[in-house]
Amino acid sequence: MDNPKYYRNKLVFPVGIKEDGTTCMGVFGERSHRIIEVKDCLIQNKKCQQIAKDIFEFVKKHNISGYDEKNLTGILRHIVIRIGIKTNEIMVTLVVNESDIPNENMLIEEITKKHSEIKTIVKNLNNKNTNVIFGKENKVIYGNGYIYDYLGDKKFKISPMSFYQVNPIQTEKLYKKAVEYAELTGKETIFDLYCGIGTIGIFASDKVEKLYGIETIPDAVEDAKENAKLNGIENAEFFVGNVENELPDFISKRNIVPDVIFVDPPRKGCDRVAIETLLKIKSNRIVYISCNPATLARDLKLLEEKYELKRISICDMFPYSSHIECVTVLNLK
Ligand SMILES: C[S@@+](CC[C@H](N)C(=O)[O-])C[C@H]1O[C@@H](n2cnc3c(N)ncnc32)[C@H](O)[C@@H]1O
To answer: pTM of the prediction?
Structure first.
């Protein structure tokens, strides 16, 4: 990455209780839930950090309690802030253990007055004893509940629960490489598996005949459908479901053999059933994008039964961390 600092468009700061009983905000120490307070995080967007600090100042001033993991008490669990770096639109999500935040309206007024880039604020209720950040219930308390960003010349709507790549500058490079590897001519039917809000497929859509996407999070699929509309794309369809459940059905009922399959699973990689289905489908090409080289290697080994690994590139998606993104292309043997 040319300028590998302050690149993250998504900040997630836990709010908790220190041993002396005071409220604290920061990041979890590695493999622990000890909160380390942060003055300046060198990889988070600066504006998002400033907003988090201002919210935290309000929290302290108005005695809004941080979440106590031992006793399962307290109000505020996490502050999550996302920015569209091309649009400068900001979404704040406050993850709470109880639905009422004291002085909520005052908080909204103060913070939006100070930071006009905040387009929306969402309250997410999570009162479970869990490591998972978000609960299931969202309440929009300011604005529309979403923001927009651009990747290349395509515009994307982003909702609080939807996955969106955290380093958009490098994402454009990654997607360009993925599309290059796919060798699209405009005549292909493509699958975008684990499609999130539809970004890869929509990025490639000018060069394809037909696009199908599958994704497990319903809100993300709603975003994907709207993103297709937003960009005037009429050759795309998106489906909610797990790839391992939907893909076999999809192939047997619809009898569609895609020319190219884009696969971009979470860190745990592809489910065994998903791999078996990919082996059965026999599309000409698979472009596998991965943020975890270990599960990528495991899955490539299985795919080698029918496909030949042609090329692999790495993308510096997470500078100053031990993580790396890979993009690979496999051709049918
Ligand atoms: C690494 S993200 C990639 C999203 C998208 N391709 C992008 O570049 O923004 C992985 C996505 O897979 C989704 N997901 C996780 N498990 C899934 C499954 N079993 N079936 C379908 N989607 C899944 C997640 O919700 C997430 O949106």
So the answer is: 0.94
